[in-house]
Amino acid sequence: MSLAYHVSNGDAAAAFKKPAAVPGRVASVYSEVQKSRLDVTLPLPSVLKSGFKVIEGPASSAAGNPDEIAKLFPNLFGQPSAVMVPSESGGLDAEQKLKIGVVLSGGQAPGGHNVISGIFDYLQQHTKGSTMYGFRGGPAGIMKCKYVELNPEFIYPYRNQGGFDMICSGRDKIETPEQFKQAQETAIKLDLDGLVVIGGDDSNTNACLLAENFRSANLKTKVIGCPKTIDGDLKCKEVPISFGFDTACKIYAEMIGNVMIDARSTGKYYHFVRLMGRAASHITLECALQTHPNITIIGEEVAAKKQTLKNVTDYIVDVICKRAECGYNYGVILIPEGLIDFIPEVQQLIAELNEILAHEIVDEGGQWKGKLTSQSLQLFDFLPEAIQEQLMLERDPHGNVQVAKIETEKMLIQMVETELEKRRQGGTYDGNFKGQSHFFGYEGRCGLPTNFDSTYCYALGYGAGALLHSGKTGLISSVGNLSAPVEEWTVGGTALTSLMDVERRHGKFKPVIKKAMVELEGAPFKKFASVRDEWAFKNCYISPGPIQFIGPAANAVNHTLLLELGAQV
Amino acid sequence: MSLAYHVSNGDAAAAFKKPAAVPGRVASVYSEVQKSRLDVTLPLPSVLKSGFKVIEGPASSAAGNPDEIAKLFPNLFGQPSAVMVPSESGGLDAEQKLKIGVVLSGGQAPGGHNVISGIFDYLQQHTKGSTMYGFRGGPAGIMKCKYVELNPEFIYPYRNQGGFDMICSGRDKIETPEQFKQAQETAIKLDLDGLVVIGGDDSNTNACLLAENFRSANLKTKVIGCPKTIDGDLKCKEVPISFGFDTACKIYAEMIGNVMIDARSTGKYYHFVRLMGRAASHITLECALQTHPNITIIGEEVAAKKQTLKNVTDYIVDVICKRAECGYNYGVILIPEGLIDFIPEVQQLIAELNEILAHEIVDEGGQWKGKLTSQSLQLFDFLPEAIQEQLMLERDPHGNVQVAKIETEKMLIQMVETELEKRRQGGTYDGNFKGQSHFFGYEGRCGLPTNFDSTYCYALGYGAGALLHSGKTGLISSVGNLSAPVEEWTVGGTALTSLMDVERRHGKFKPVIKKAMVELEGAPFKKFASVRDEWAFKNCYISPGPIQFIGPAANAVNHTLLLELGAQV
Fold first, then answer.
1. Are A40-83+92-244+449-506 and A246-442+539-565 in the same CATH fold?
2. Does B550 contact A551 at a Cβ distance shorter than 8 Å?
3. Where are the residues marked Important for catalytic activity as a site (chains A, B) (predicted)?
């Protein structure tokens, strides 16, 4: 295996003029902590350490609408899951030389480099003479056949390191017949035996479509997915957690814990912390379990209770007033990035605004507001001016509000200020309120992976290699029994079709892996709900501190996972 | 020593109704990392471990205007510094029972709790039967005689922990004759032998005034200062660094490093990171040395070169354009919080606006702008609308713009966007620019102190105890030789008057400890200046990762200190 960049599409002269957008890393200039992670030997689950074979479970179905899923995946539907079991003789052909591609898809999550290292090491150790390609820049790299051949020297500086910059990621999808054809051409050109797609729910759906497409075209190329997303919303019984969630939450929790101690020391600020995670509130819930803030808003609960923005504001204000009576004019409040997406009245307002902005002239005098329903008009007028402006201005290319750009934490501070002033006038509040806003997002996506994420990802990748070696396709790499020591972790693959349901879009059924939302009946939320009132009025702050890689604190696992696995936290 | 809260001023019934604003911590609910820090035994400089005595150096002078300082401090001016040296016999009376108070003054900095632990342990080990009081809520606690008596059980949960919440801090000053009288009353009431003031430049000036006042009133109470500020702007030859700087910079650098890897992985964002540190740019410079960003703005350089906002914008835009030619449409840019304070034209504009807003009616039509000088008008019109609004609206109680509230990072993003658009029209730029803004501030003030800050603070406190035991007053605790192993650190005290100069305020000379700004001829800036062009166009990012407490990466010291001490970094 030698290091070389191949760019088959594009202008070679231009490529020469413009250096590669991502120069490889040089470990010699690493920080001490980065260096200290390079040579860490990761434990593997016992089943992967000696001889093993892959056995199959019973036929699978789908998460919903199995008939439609069966039609969409005629070759793959119903296939069983696979699990590695010890085997003296081994079951796999050690003489086989494989050609395997790997691609990173979507947003960064700590541990992606270790998935790649895991696949690579599997191939080195079990299929000597194999070749591994990293497609550059996400799925577009597959379509354009842009790749780098991976070798030990190239991979080394990325071991146990954060980021996706070894081969970079992208958000393109392989969707149209033309795009599937390009992917086939690449698979044929590189003589690929397999492809590992590291991504979230969409990317794994895409991986399954690709597996189906390759099989229907009689290509030998198998496709295996790996569960990636810091948001934690890609999970199921067989895939207990997506990688990156553990590290990202610990990074955010470190910052939240610091801010808490600052709040208590200063005694005069309410810190409103917005946390990444647009669709589901797992990150916010996990950070709450790690740090015990005074107030935590969980989007799924707001939606389930059909709460209005006023309800949310009142809840916050009620706590602030009661705390003021106790002499506490400070606190910490966690807010999920996607909060306003969960509020039915806001969704309604945004839908009406989208419609108006697409078709009407928005006059300075505000005549256009007459087009709003009275409920939406009332809400619009209730919103702070800056948020009104954001709702009117920011549109994505599809004409939709870019909800993630709305600074919900600042909006809530303003709404809380207004309500507190009312209560002050009414004589029911005489405290002091100063809000400080924070958004923790990009800081968590590329941190050095925790020991958990490093090890979990390595096992996911190593297992993906084994699944491809055994000829599996359309599975998502599945490592389980995660509350036990690493030696006892289980390794296998779950039929991607079994995670799927369909959604109707533009009159057609589209397969989707439903995002796993925070379950209000699940153990993590119930634990939180049982203690939040105590957290609100007593100050039970916990400061998790910086992620440690050595020592007694280094191997803690996130609360969400442990609680979901039935452990006491 | 027993644990008890004493509130001598104020309503006891109210105190009962309102629980203490800061309940003591309970170590049993700590995170694993917090727990792991509690029982760490900190190394002490050798000189403090066995018998030592305090010897004096030559008479001191002042940093400037010694005649005026001599008039302001007739009792203290000229006193020598003190240094601990080994002594078989010991020089200090082990039978003496001391009553010592301690106060935290100003903003939080990691390590404050360890200064207190250091004083406490000194007293326990060298003056058995002594009593220690912690004044609550900063200098106001001295004036109101609000304190807690410290004992081992009370102190234990705060050992090596961040925050100031053991006794909390405050920003009051002891300034008026009435306030000095209150302080004297407290000193007499508690029969104080000594007081340790833990604070920044202002607080240490105040400590010296208090020492002078107590001595002139023939009180026995001695006053010793300790150098605290994350900003790093309280330092001199004898006090090589203020505590908290090391930890805060490492916390910010962790986040910056993460964002850098995200930038490189995504390839599409310029991250504009504003860093705390309003007066001096030490934090920004240190974070740059730790992480190698593409662009770093140092306020002191902007001021020295009399740069305009347009100059700063053009510099950033030049780098962005050149990077776009190289195929890089991403990067990381560090900006000190106080940037606009350093820009002469902005200071001028703000002064004019303050004057206009104090005396004129600001009309919607903009007639008021006629009162601006043409240079200021031009600058005002050049600023993004949101910044114009911030400049017009936000005033502190003294009628001044609250510069720290101005989101300089967002302002620069907008100005860069505008300039890039011009260049695109002019055909000199065809890249893509998307700015992301960050402010790292509160997250760094209360983190778990690094091994360096933990150890340094403990030595500062232990040394302060020894200085009081030997009857010293008006000194700042000074621990030196910090690039050597802890055993070889020197311990002593520096005459606070020797750090002082005077400023004329309201027609009177006021003593001040001048803030130590970034020296453009100093080693840290020169190192930075010698490599910044390489950092701008090559991507030399370093990700320091989370602070480690164990292992090879745990004992690194910040670059600024090492470079200033003449070490190679």
1. yes
2. yes
3. 228
- CA A167 to each of CA A198, A225, A555, B261, B270: distance values in angstroms, whole numbers, following the listed order: 12, 17, 28, 13, 20
Residues 6+ apart with CB under 8 A from B362: B356, B368, B392
Catalytic residue from among B121, B231, B246, B453: B231
Structural contact between residues B203 and B209, judged by C-beta atoms closer than 8 angstroms: no
Q: Where are the domains of chain B?
A: 40-83+92-244+449-506, 246-442+539-565
DSSP state string for B121-163: HHHHHHSTT-EEEEETTTHHHHHTTEEEE--HHHHGGGTT--S
pLDDT for residue A227 is more than 80 = yes
Which residues in chain A have Cβ-Cβ distances shorter than 8 Å to B448? 543, 545-546
Q: Do strands A435-440 and A194-199 pair parallel, antiparallel, or not at all (unpaired)?
A: unpaired
**Residue A499 burial (10 A CB sphere; 0-12, 13-18, 19+):** buried
- Whole-Å CA distances, A359 to A78, A365, A371: 47, 17, 11
- For residue B272, give Cα distances in angstroms to A283, B330, B337, B409, B413: 25, 11, 12, 6, 7
| B40-83+92-244+449-506 CATH fold | Rossmann fold (3.40.50)
The pairs formed by A499-502 with CB atoms below 8 angstroms and a separation of 24 or more are A499/A62, A499/A63, A499/A204, A499/A236, A499/A239, A500/A62, A500/A63, A500/A64, A500/A69, A500/A73, A500/A205, A500/A208, A501/A62, A501/A63, A501/A64, A501/A65, A501/A69, A502/A64, A502/A65, A502/A68, A502/A69, A502/A72
Q: Which helix (H) or strand (E) holds A387?
A: helix A385-393
Show the tokens assigned to B418.
């505008």
**Element spanning A210, H or E:** helix A201-216
Residues of A in contact with B545 (CB under 8 A): 31, 33-34, 37, 447-448
Name residues whose C-beta falls within 8 Å of residue A425's C-beta, 6 or more positions apart in sequence. Answer: none
Task: For chain B, list residues with pLDDT below 70.
Answer: 1-24, 90, 394, 397-400, 404
pLDDT digits (tens, 9 = 90+) for A153-194: 999 999 999 999 999 999 999 999 999 999 999 999 999 999
What pLDDT does A3 receive? 31
> Nearest Cα to A493, choosing from A217, A212, A81, A88?
A81
Distance CA(B156)–CA(A392), nearest Å, equals 54
Asked whether the beta carbons of A238 and A482 are under 8 A apart, the reply is no
What phi, psi does B36 have (nearest 5°)?
-65, -20
CA distance A245 to A561: 10
* Measured distance CA(B481)–CA(A340) in Å, rounded: 55
Cα four-point dihedral sign B48, B50, B53, B55: negative
Output the DSSP codes for B223-234.
EEEEEB-TT---
CA distances, A416 to each of A383, A409, B233 (Å): 11, 10, 36
What's residue A362's pLDDT? 80
* Main-chain dihedrals φ then ψ at residue B373, nearest 5 degrees: -65, 160
Is-contact B510 B80, C-beta < 8 A? Answer: no
Contact with chain B for residue A326, Cβ under 8 A: yes
Q: Which CATH class is domain B246-442+539-565?
A: alpha beta
Distance linking the first and last C-alpha atoms of chain A? 46
- Give the separation between CA A127 and CA A466, rounded to whole angstroms: 10
Q: Which of B539, B542, B553 is the closest to A36 by Cβ?
A: B553
